[in-house]
Amino acid sequence: MASILDLRRRIRSVKNTRQITKAMQMISAARLRRAQDRALAARPYAQMLTNVLKSLVARTDVYDESGEPLHPLLIRREEKNILLIVVSGEKGLAGAFNSNILKNAALFISTKQDKNIDVIAAGRKSRDYFRKRYPFSSVSLEKHLGEEPPVTERKGRIQLVDEHAGVIGTSTYAASKQIADEVVHAYRRGEIDSVYIVFNEFKSVIAQRLVVEEVLPIVKLGERDIMQSSEPGEEERFKAIRAAEHAGADIKAMDTTAVDAMAAAFFHDGADYIYEQPPAKLLRDLLPKYVGVQIYRAMLESEAAEHAARMTAMDSATNNASDMIDRLTLEMNRARQAKITTEIIEIVSGAAAL
What we know:
By secondary structure, the chain is an alpha/beta fold. It has helices at residues 4-57, 97-110, 124-133, 173-188, 234-247, 257-264, 279-353; strands spanning 81-87, 116-122, 158-164, 194-202, 208-216, 225-230. It is built from seven helices and six strands. The chain starts with a helix and ends with a helix.
C-alpha cells in the first residue's frame, strides 16, 4: 500500500490535471461557438454561388451536339487516377476524432485497390499519418499549374502529393482556394479522373458524421454525392450531450432558415437576369470557385467538429479525474485509519506490558 504522503502528492497532481482539462473544455466550447458562426456566415455565399450557377446553366449550352460537356470540370472519365483530400485536425487531445477520419480514409483507399491514388493532407494529423505510410511525391501539384502536365514517375500506387499543415484553425478561404487551384488544374490536364474529400460533417454537437464526398466531376449543382458515411453511436452522443451541458454549449443544430430563404430568393422559375459577361464565360470562371467553396465548407465543418470532439474528450477526462480523486482520497483515509489503529494497538500493548 502506498504511503499517505505519496497518496497526497498523487491527489494534488490529479487535481492540477483536472483544472487543465476543465479549462481546455471551456476553451473548446468557446471556439466551437465561433466556428459555428463562421460556418453559418459562409453559407449565404455558397448558396448564392450555387444559385447563380444554376441560373447560368439554364441560359447556356453545357453540352455540345454530341452530348459531351463543354466545361472540363463536368467531364466524367473512366476512374483510373484518384485524388483524395483528407481533412483532419491540427492537434490531439480530441478523443477518436482524428483516428476516425484516418480510418475512413484508409477504408476508402481499400475499396480502390486497382486505382492510383494521390493524397492531399490538410491538417497536421493527416500529414503525419500519410508521411509514415506512403511515399511523398517530389513534384507537388502546386508547383505545376501550367497547361502542360509535368513528366514524373509515380512513387507508388498511393502517394502523398501535397500537404497543408496549420490551415484548419485559421479557417481562411485562401488555404482552401490554394487546394482548389491545384485540384482544378490537375483535373483539367487529365492527371486525375475524380476527386474525393474525407472530413467530419458538423451539424450540431450531437449530429455529426464522417463522410467521403465526391467533389469532381461536378454531376449536379447544389447536390452532394456522398460515397461513404458513418455516424457516432448512442454512447458517443450521450457523452457529447453531457459535455455540452457542463460547458454551457448549445446542442441544437444551427438555424439556417433565414439564410436559406434569402439565398433561395435569387433563383426561382420565371426569373430573368441580365449578365454583363456571356453566360458561358461566367460558367467557366465560376465553376472553379464552386469547387473552392466546397473544400472551404469541409474545412469549416471539420474545425467545428474538432472543437466539439475535444470538448467531449476533455469533459470525460475531467470526470475521470474526479473519480480518481475520490478513489485516492478513500484509499488515503483507509491508510491513515490503519496507521492510527496500529499506533493505538502499540500504545495499548506497551501499557499492558508494564
